[in-house]
Amino acid sequence: MCSVTLRPALPADLDALTALEHRCFDLDRLSRRSFQKWIKRRHEGFIIAETADRTLAGYALVLLQPGTRLARLYSIAVDPSLRGQKLGEKLMDAAERYAHEERRLYLRLEVRKDNHCAIALYEKRGYRLFGLTPDYYEDHQDALRYQKRLHYQPANDARLHLPWVQQSTPFTCGPACLLMALAALKDRTPDTTEELLLWREATTIYMTAGHGGCHPMGLAIAAQRRGLSASVWCNQKGPLFVDSVRDPDKKTVITTLHQYFVDTCKKDGIKVNYQDFTANDLDRAIAAGKIVLVMISTWRLDGRKAPHWIAISGSDEECFYIHDPDPGEDQVPLDCQHVPITREKFEKMRKYGQAKLRTAVVLGP
């Protein structure tokens, strides 16, 4: 059996990594520039396997998703001449150990549907299949999505039935989340035109800068008009978001729309609970088959203090799992689905602004 040493990637490894990538993969290769980026960041999750004669035998690259307890095995490779010597398992051990040391609860990965050897290795190590992404690779092969709980296996796994929808504009997170609910509860195919029409119905028109976001009552009204049951939790009675706008004319517009949403909810029989909601309230709604859209502050996700709608795809005793419709700069859509957020962190995320606005929309069939 080949003896290897594991260590973080160094600048001197760049040429060998690029050559190894070309020996291992015909398609979907990491570029030299990508390797250079992660080496330059001195990323401890970029793990090199080196033989006694200092030959690069393989690597694993683990990425950590900011603001979450989720890690992703972005890529793993073993020199073809050294396969069959359990180097892949050693790299997987190191990848899981790194993610665990970084207090991640899950390590996730994607694998080609036809890569039976890799699939067998992952399943042997306790990875569970939880999704499929069609047409993921350059040759249009599907990707199977696996994950492993690094700390313990929860008694109540996340509910993974909620389809994910990516917002098509910077300001339509709310409509994208509502489209997820419509896809799950009404089997409706997400449509960009409907996303924009939902925004027109539910928007506040103005925010601090740029286009306005969606009002929780506006989303509830739009959902009910499309055949869903809807109710709202909101810990504030007055106009929402008005404190973030300085222009008095804009304040008037926001206040006018808020009153329209209040009156329409009353007229259409949409219940508005003017009180804070708890983790137990969320758990009960999820257990009842409801889909909950929650407004959060993005500060703990991307360092920006912006209101942002997400959909909860499930919960267990330690985490809420969210669908975030907006992939960040260093993220791909797979990173934004069923993201585990610890209950403690979620409690901090679900308040926005100086007024600590907390609001959610509960949707059912």
Describe this structure in words.
The chain is of the alpha+beta class and 365 residues long. It folds into two domains: 146 residues, Aminopeptidase, CATH 3.40.630; 192 residues, Cysteine proteinases (Cathepsin B, Chain A, Alpha-Beta Complex), CATH 3.90.70. Helices cover 33% and strands 24% of the residues. The strands form two sheets. The protein has a seven-stranded mixed β-sheet with strand order 1-2-3-4-5-7-6, with helices on both faces. A seven-stranded mixed β-sheet has the order 9-8-14-10-11-12-13, with helices on both faces. A hairpin with a 4-residue loop joins strand 2 and strand 3. Helix 1 crosses helix 2, helix 5 crosses helix 6 and helix 7 crosses helix 8. The longest helix has 21 residues. About 2% of the residues have low confidence. Keywords: Acyltransferase, Transferase. This is GNAT family N-acetyltransferase. GO terms for molecular function: acyltransferase activity, transferring groups other than amino-acyl groups. InterPro entries: Acyl_CoA_acyltransferase, Bact_Acetyltransf, DUF3335, GNAT_dom. It comes from Alcanivorax sediminis.
